[in-house]
Structure formats: structure tokens, C-alpha cells
Amino acid sequence: MDLLRSNLSRVRIPEPTNRIYKQECCVSFDTPRSEGGLFVDMNTFLAFGKDYIGWHYEKTGNPVYLHIKQNKVLVPEDRPLKKPTLMAIGIDGGFDNNELEYEESHSIVVLPDYLSLPFPSVELPEKVRLAVDSILMAVGAEKKEQLAAWTADKKQTSAYAMNLQQVDNGTIVPSSGWKCSKCDKRDNLWMNLTDGTILCGRKNWDGTGGNNHAVEYYNDTGYPLATEMTTAERELDQNTNFDWNRIQESGQEVEPIFGPGYTGLVNLGNSCYMAATMQVVFSTHSFYSRYYKNQSLKTAFEKAPADPTVDLNMQLTKLAHGLLSGKYSVPVSEEKDQTNAITPTTNVKQDGISPRMFKAVIAASHPEFSSMRQQDALEFFLHFLDQVERAHGGRPEIDPARSFKFGIEDRIKCSSGKVAYNRRLDYILSLNIPLHEATNKEELAAFQKLKAEKASEGKEVSSDEIVRPRVPLEACLASFSSPEEIQDFYSTALKAKTTAVKSAGLTSFPDYLVLHMRKFVMEEGWVPKKLDVYIDVPDIIDISHMRSKGLQHGEELLPESVPGEEEEPTKPVADENIVTQLVSMGFNNLHCQKAAINTSNAGVEEAMNWLLSHMDDPDIDTPISQGGGQIVVDPSKVDMLISFGFQEDIARAALKASGGDIEKATDWIFNNPGASVSTDMDATTSETTPTAADSGLPDGGGRYRLIGIVSHIGTSTLCGHYVAHIFKDGRWVIFNDAKVGASVNPPKDMGYLYFFERLNS
């Protein structure tokens, strides 16, 4: 006790603003349930496992710790579940997450002699008792953010829904075969919630959409509420159910695997996008070496700042050791008090590790990843590599992200016969899926015929009757390299617009090649759609033919452009007749010009519809751009727009037009459906010799072996579920959050992201 009293100056009573860690070690995944429990520093409120508390003591000299130990308590199997009163998980009144119960014990430990004093005890100094009480009553920093994000947002209540009139007119809504009651439209349908009438939706300015019958019906009847109905979603739901079973290998006898490299990641709440991506990332030699083989936990801790929870290097090293060491990949039996059971059962699994601290660090600069909402695995992968590259600024030789980086070169040849070469760097190769290259066209034709017959009978095809296109990966790669015509290309040789041909190739082959399949596209009317398609992916691919050759003998480069030379031809111009008519109706002249331009001068009615729906846009009063200096487009933002289903050239043009803002770029694309991409491709010449950015990039042969697949289940990248399959130790392994097992039938044809490792010849 005297030793404790002599160190009271190193004990602090936490304030409400202090972050208190008491659920997980800062440098490992030890918890109060681990063998040695958890030690909370009563000065910094950081927590450490029994093997790491000595490091913290050596670094800080803080000697007084609260020791927390939790031991499992058997719970009767017939324990009644509490009814939730709050849309939340893990807090009082929320949903029961079926966790086992533990009893918790506490003591005060004083280093370096590990003197242990019981708590609670009236013999302890009052300051220590107050500090411990405050620590135990506080919500841990690890859970505070998670619980806040899990609590559902307050739902808005419609005034119409509170007193909605219901008309009993005998209408029975069928389960399928829906059609507008006033026309033959079978898509974009809405059901009025007052009387069940099904009608088509609003007509868009470009002629797409419905025939306005739902709106007209509201004007006639005053019935205010309607819900969207779509047969496409019902069919996609059937496909999603099939995807769910196939990708997760449901119903298969998946043998659990334990040991080094086979540790699962606990789902923190829609964090499967992160779990699937990080499992594949740490299966690569570059990340394995950087954060596990060549860097110990102690080395990372010694390099870390006073708070290791906010250090990316520390948390990546912690995650690497957690995933790869095998320490936490051990079989755990799900045991319950089965005294009254006829046959006691035991289900062997692993608990996995919870990457809360890593998620907090990597998401600190990205508000979406900080939330508990589902995210796009591609967007997260690019954000993650960007953060790793930034952390290694000035030390590219040890940057593991460079193993994914490669150069792309666009060759543009205009009608003058002269060429231009543009170069950029990227981490992923995003591929269109040419459905016309499907190898099962006869089966598809038969399926479409069957689908039409059943639709005429008011029936739907069953999930086992659905046939998807099968497209070879080779066709997707060929689509990337194939020549593409560019209309309205401004040629600096002809000093006029002309037609050019663009082709693309790779200037270097990375150690790890990531292929992104553009399964999410925009249909007519800017409706997002997921392509239901199989990609036949071989285990070995050869992309040697995709290497860019650069400037060839006899080719002549396009002359450099003169600033402002092509600005006038590419400047958007509004139709004066449309603007004049709109101005005469009382609209602002600038707003009218924007309306005409954004509807491609289609007509007065179209421009008025655009104007009425964009009156509140924050940039509605921003002057129309007249051209200007070059805008450097961030490749990661291009990839993000590509992942939304937009073409690369459109994405680049939109980012240039919006100053690099993703949200504004998306609005620009929606508001410019007929926009030309020529401004993005009005390229002058660029050097064909390697630039400083290209130097130091990994390069080698073009033969690759498939080592990882990230698959997606759901109608959008922002919902559903992600699962990883990785080729390890001569077999395919499924990583489904905390579940790890030997894959029986890996879904090689259903991937969203494919990871290839270069083969050394």
C-alpha cells in the first residue's frame, strides 16, 4: 500500500472528455477475456495485455494500472430473450446480440514489481477508488463511436401517413405481372397507397421514364402517398438469394481452418467490405513483409507517438500480427449450460479479432468509412492504398502499396495521322464487361423467350431457371485495349475538331494486378443497375500483349497546344431561342443558359423541367465556365466514379468540370447525359520516355496467377455483403468475416475484385 501511495501523483481521475480504453489492448488484440486480462494505465487510460504492459511502463514510467479480468459464465440454454425497445445493438434496450455472459474482477497493479491490491477495498486511497469508479462507469473509447453509429437515425413521419385514407374498392394487387392501369408501361410503376391503383411514374426531360400517370392521378384524386414497384428488383432479389448461397458457400460442408494466416475479422457492423479487402491485402508478400515479417510489435510501438491508437503504422502492424501470427486463430467451443439437454452439442469455431482501432485510424480522413453503413470495397481499397502511400512519403522503397501500382498510357491518333500519348498511374485495372461477347448466347435466347412467355401469363421465372451471360475475362481485357473512336476531338495539328482513335496499354506490370469488374452500370434514364453476369476467369492469365509500345518509328507527335486555342470551340453554348423564351417567363438569364446547356438544347420544355428541379442547386448562380487552365484529375476519384458505372472518359470530364469534387462531378454527369467527352481527350503530346512518377515502379513479365477474389452480394455496392476467397497453401480458403474455412466451390466467376500475383519466369 505504501508503494501505491508513493505513486499517487501518477494517478488521474478521468474527465468526461478523456478517451478510456478498457476493452482491447492498444498494440494487440488481447481483451479482459484473454488469459492475462487487460491492464489500464491510470494516467493515460490506454490499455495493454499482460505481454505488453512492460513496454508501456518502460516508455512512460507510469506504474499504476487497473487490472480487468473477465471469466465466462455458463448461461441456461432456455434463457428468455428480452424484447428490444430501441433500434440499437449492444446497449440497454437494444437487440440481444446473443453474446456469452462474463463475470468481471478488478485489482490494482503497481509496476515494476507487479504488486497486486484487491478492488474494491476501503483501504485503497480515495483518489484511486474515485479513478477506478470513473473508469469502470465510463463507456470505453472502443465502443463509444460504434454504439453511437449503430443507434438508428430518427425517422421522419409523414403527415399524410398519420391519417392516410384507405378506400375499400375491392382491388387486389397481384404478386407479379404489374402494368400501368392507363397505359402499357411495365416499368417505373407506382402503387397508390389509398386505393391500390398502379400507375407509371414521372416523364423525364429526355423522354425516358413513365407517362406521368401517377402524378396526374394524384392531381385528380388528391391521394398523396405511393410506393415504387419494380419487377426488376424482384428478379434481382431471386438472383441475390442465389448469389448469397453460392458466394458464402451456404449448405456446403466447409471445414474450419485455424492457425497462422487463418484468423477471421469480426464484423463491426457492415464492415465486411473492409474485412474482405484486408484479408486479401495481407495475403500479399509486400504487406506481409512490411508489417509482419520485417516489423515487430515492439518496434512499431517504440516508433509510435504517445497514443498508439492513432498511429497508422502501429495499427497496421497490430492488424498484421493479429491476422498472421495464429495467436487468435484457435478453436473455441460454443458452450452453454445444457443440463436439461438430451444430447449436449459443441460447435467449434474461432472468435476472430475486432479491427476497431484500425478502422478508426484508416477512416479518420473519410467520413463514410467512419460510419456503420456499408461501403464499396473498391473505394475502400483505393483509400487504404492512398493512406499507406502517404504514410511512406519520401520512402518509396519500403512502401508496400507500390506493389499494386502501374502505369497506363493512352495513344490518341487523329485524322491528321499524328499521335499524342498521355500517361497516368493507377492501382486497379477497371474493366467493362462486353455482354455481346457472351459464350452462351443460345441459352440466353431460350431464357429470354421463356421469360417473355411467363410474363404474358402473369408468372415469373424461378431462380433455378435464370440464365446469366458468361463472358470470358479475355474479352474484358481485350475491351480495355481495343481501339475506341472519339468524336469531336480537337486536333492541334488541324486546329479543328475531328474524329480520333484512342487505344490504351500498360507501361509497367505490377507485382499484384487488381482487376475491377464494372458490374454496376447506368441504364437509360440514369438508373443504376447491377449486371447479372458470370466472368470466366482462368487461374493463369497473360497480359504481355497489353504492354504499351510508346512512340513508334515514323510516328509524328501532335504539336503542343497554345493556351486558349481550343477553348472557344469547346465552350458550351446555349440556344438563344430557348433562353429568350425562358427569360420571357420570368426566369433568370444565367439560370436559363444553364438549363439549355444541361439539356443539350433539346427544347424549351426540357430546359424548363431541368430548371424547376435545379432551382435550389448551390452552384446555380455560379458563372458558366469559359475554359481555363489545366485541371489535374485525381486517379482515385476517377476510379470511384468508374465504380459507380460511369465510363472513364465521362468521369474524367466530369471531374475537370467540377474542380475535382466527387459529388459535383456526379451531378454534372446526371445533368449532362449527352455531354461530349472531347474536352477530356483534347490532349496534346506528352513525353513517351519514363517520367519521375514511373521510376521505381515494379515491373516484370505479363503472366499472373489468381490468388484472391472479393465477391459482392446485393443490388448495390453500398448494401449487401462482401466475402473473400484466397488461395493459400495450395487450396482455396473462404474468409467470411470471422468464419474461415476450406472452400469447396470458390465462386471464381462471380468476383467483383480479382487479385493476381505476377509469376516470375
How would you describe this structure to a colleague?
With 761 residues, the chain is α+β, with helices and mostly antiparallel strands. The protein is built from 24 helices and 26 strands. The strands form seven sheets. Strands 13, 17, 21, 22, 23, 24, 25 and 26 form an eight-stranded mixed β-sheet that branches. Strands 2-1-3-4-5 form a five-stranded antiparallel β-sheet, with no helix packed on it. α8 packs across α14 (377-391), α10 packs antiparallel against α11 and α18 crosses α19 (589-598). The protein is globular. The N and C termini lie far apart (68 Å). Mean pLDDT is 82; it is low at 87-91, 148-154, 335-346, 566-570 and 676-693.
Annotation keywords:
alpha+beta, 8-stranded mixed sheet, 5-stranded antiparallel sheet, 24 helices, 29% helix, globular
Q: Would you spell out the secondary-structure blueprint of this structure?
A:
Elements: H1 2-6, E1 38-41, E2 47-49, H2 53-60, E3 64-73, E4 101-110, E5 115-119, H3 126-137, H4 141-150, H5 159-162, E6 189-192, E7 198-200, H6 213-221, E8 226-229, H7 231-247, H8 272-281, H9 285-293, H10 297-303, H11 312-324, E9 332-334, E10 347-349, H12 356-362, H13 367-370, H14 377-391, E11 406-414, E12 419-426, E13 429-431, H15 441-456, E14 470-472, H16 473-481, E15 484-491, E16 496-506, E17 512-517, E18 520-523, E19 527-530, E20 534-536, E21 540-542, H17 567-570, H18 576-584, H19 589-598, H20 604-613, H21 635-643, H22 648-657, H23 662-671, H24 678-681, E22 703-713, E23 721-728, E24 731-736, E25 739-742, E26 751-758
Parallel strand pairs: 13-17, 14-20
Antiparallel strand pairs: 1-2, 1-3, 3-4, 4-5, 6-7, 6-8, 9-10, 11-12, 11-16, 15-16, 17-26, 18-19, 21-22, 22-23, 22-26, 23-24, 24-25
